[in-house]
Amino acid sequence: MNELAIYDDYAIAEEIPDLILEAIFSYLSLKDLRNCALVCKKWYRILSDENNDVWRVHCVKRLVEEVTKSDLLSTVTTYKSKLRAFFHAWNPHDCSRNMYVKPNGFTLHRNPVAQSTDACRGKVGFYYGRHAWEVIWEGPLGTVAVVGISTKDAPLQCQGYVGLLGSDEQSWGWNLVDNHLLHNGDSQGHYPLLNNCPKYQVGERIRVILDCEDNTLAFERNYEFLGVAFRGLPNKKKLYPTVSAVYGNTEVSMVYLGPPVDG
């Protein structure tokens, strides 16, 4: 293709009205949309608008009406961010056999199985960048309810009621019941280090902050930073959002937020 032909194609791309482009883009796959954003500044501008019809249509295709009308996604305010949260939600193929992900795509349910501790990981793991997500425990905590991260090598089920997340060197967790940090099978101390810190209440949003540059894991509750919980996380190894639970019929939702906002 000669330079004149390339210029003509570029000129045509620039002349197509925005509304027509949005209509065309709404039929394309997400992979195709990533390629389209590289064509020209106009296409990039349109696809950078996270609230236009392109992302609205993709949300309608993938997100069930139940979740779009609830307040579960209230902290992700654009269509594209809601879609991103969906693709980072719990993985129905990476959880204990005693758990399943509900049709809304964001909430896992633990079946009432006696003498078992069960876990579930998110769809996407991280080994670079900074990432934040919210975990909402929507059912009883039971005696052990752990929020944190794990590698793909960490187990997802074990016998008894224990802190499964944090039981080996492949996982790190905060037990919301007794406010202890767990890693490598041992308690890593009390958390958070705040005076008269109230116990977690069912339904509160816990914000998990993973910094793969500083290799740290931290938590927030009710927009209050609780401090760094773990340091020295492994380099260049994917770490996945994870929870472990023991209580029958408990439910836990997870919403990916993207890079954390400092301050």
UniProtKB/TrEMBL annotation:
Swiss-Prot/TrEMBL GO biological process terms: negative regulation of nervous system development; proteasome-mediated ubiquitin-dependent protein catabolic process; synapse assembly involved in innervation
This protein's GO CC annotations: SCF ubiquitin ligase complex; synapse
Domain B30.2/SPRY: 68-261
InterPro entries the record matches: B30.2/SPRY, B30.2/SPRY_sf, ConA-like_dom_sf, F-box-like_dom_sf, F-box_dom, FBXO45-Fsn/SPSB_families, SPRY_dom, SPRY_FBXO45
Superkingdom of source: Eukaryota
Pathway named in the protein's UniProt entry: Protein modification; protein ubiquitination
Residues annotated as domain F-box: 10-58
Subcellular location as annotated: Synapse
Tagged with keyword NADP: no
Pfam entry (one): F-box-like
Keyword set, alphabetical order: Neurogenesis, Synapse, Ubl conjugation pathway
Listed PROSITE patterns: B302_SPRY, FBOX
CDD domains, sorted: F-box_FBXO45, SPRY_Fbox
Function, in words: Required in the presynaptic motoneuron to down-regulate the levels of wnd and restrain synaptic terminal growth at the neuromuscular junction (NMJ).
Assigned protein family: Belongs to the FBXO45/Fsn family.
Quaternary assembly: Component of an E3 ubiquitin ligase complex composed of hiw and Fsn.
Protein's name in the database: F-box/SPRY domain-containing protein 1
